[in-house]
């Protein structure tokens, strides 16, 4: 059973901006600010965001959540190296199970520091691009975008599929038509302290059309919101 990892940021020449780096492995140094130490990060580029081609979704090794970074523009990214060529495709041994997971509410078990099990209710969003044995998932108590190999977790007894709600808003046709227009829209969200944060809706979840990915301007995490239920 896996443990929840931390969200925080703890060869070949760089590709030109005209080359696609989706599916490539990358490594770079990261310096949050002038007072922060430099750390080294390695990961896989999952997708280039269509509404903002400078933005890439990245899965870093040893980190469960997905990051959204303008890696060619962000000054915190230093000494970027890109290893050309797409990574080899992963085989999903149970395609039927993988398809059954999409759009479904689940309970995901994680091991805590004392060895006990912690239940996280979540929603399986989609297969992860460039890494098809992995899945995008989000959780009720932490609505960010995460990635796990959920078919293996299911076989290990660490994932339980819940029945769908009978009044699922994603099944209503009228709100779905409205939601189709939201990708690329700017959003404004109020923080608990009353301050405002701005962001962009970058992707719609095909299995749950009322659910969207949002990238806020002041954060490299990707957030997941139900725009009908909000």
Secondary structure layout plus pairing:
Elements: E1 25-30, E2 39-48, E3 56-60, E4 67-69, E5 77-83, H1 95-101, E6 105-111, E7 117-128, E8 131-139, E9 142-148, H2 150-155, E10 159-161, H3 173-179, E11 186-190, E12 196-204, E13 211-216, E14 222-226
Antiparallel strand pairs: 1-2, 1-5, 2-3, 3-4, 6-7, 6-10, 7-8, 8-9, 11-12, 12-13, 13-14
Explain what you see.
This protein has 230 residues and is mainly β. It has 3 domains: 1-87, Trefoil (Acidic Fibroblast Growth Factor, subunit A), CATH 2.80.10; 95-161, Roll (SH3 type barrels), CATH 2.30.30; 172-226, SH3 type barrels (Roll). Helices cover 9% and strands 41% of the residues. It is built from 3 helices and 14 strands. A 5-stranded antiparallel β-sheet has the order 4-3-2-1-5, with no helix packed on it. A 5-stranded antiparallel β-sheet has the order 9-8-7-6-10. The protein has a 4-stranded antiparallel β-sheet with strand order 11-12-13-14, with no helix packed on it. Strand 13 and strand 14 form a beta hairpin. The longest helix has 7 residues, at 95-101. The chain is globular. It comes from Cyprinus carpio. This is Spindlin-Z-like isoform X3.
């Amino acid at each position: 059973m896996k443990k929840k990892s931390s969200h925080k940021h703890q060869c070949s020449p760089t590709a030109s901006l005209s080359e696609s780096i989706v599916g490539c492995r990358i490594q770079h140094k990261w310096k949050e600010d002038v007072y922060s130490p430099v750390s080294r990060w390695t990961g896989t580029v999952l997708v280039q965001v269509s509404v903002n081609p400078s933005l890439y979704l990245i899965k870093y090794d040893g980190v469960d959540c997905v990051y959204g970074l303008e890696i060619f523009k962000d000054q915190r990214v230093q000494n970027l190296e890109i290893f050309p060529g797409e990574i080899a495709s992963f085989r999903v041994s149970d395609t039927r199970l993988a398809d059954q997971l999409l759009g479904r509410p689940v309970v995901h078990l994680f091991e805590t520091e004392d060895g006990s099990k912690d239940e996280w209710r979540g929603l399986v969003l989609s297969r992860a691009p460039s890494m098809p044995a992995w899945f995008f998932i989000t959780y009720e108590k932490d609505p960010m975008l995460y990635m796990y190999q959920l078919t293996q977790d299911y076989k290990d007894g660490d994932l339980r599929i819940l029945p769908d709600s009978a009044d699922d808003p994603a099944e209503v046709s009228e709100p779905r038509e409205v939601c189709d227009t939201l990708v690329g829209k700017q959003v404004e969200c109020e923080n608990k302290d009353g301050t405002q944060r701005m962001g962009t809706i970058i992707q719609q979840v095909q299995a749950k059309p009322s659910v969207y990915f949002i990238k806020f301007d002041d954060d490299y995490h990707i957030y997941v919101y139900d725009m009908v239920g909000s």
